[in-house]
Amino acid sequence: MSGINLPSTTQCKWAEGESGNYTFPCKNPRGDGSYCEYHAAIVYETPEQRKARAEQARAANNAAKRIAA
Ligand SMILES: [Zn+2]
After folding, report:
1. Which of 57, 63, 65, 18 is CA-nearest to residue 38?
2. What predicted TM-score, i.e. pTM, was given to this entire model?
3. CA of 61 to the centre of ligand 1 (A)
């Protein structure tokens, strides 16, 4: 395992990217498992839940942009 900048042991291990080129954008402390509460919920959710959450996140992002603008 080289070339991958692993997060610290107390950091959420949520990874993004393609094989061999991962980044660990989540800086939240991990919970009981390898992920923070937020990402643990994503990892263990069903595809239906994932789709619903993605749509919620998109709506929330749009709302945040409107507030920031
Ligand atoms: Zn996380």
Report:
1. 57
2. 0.53
3. 17
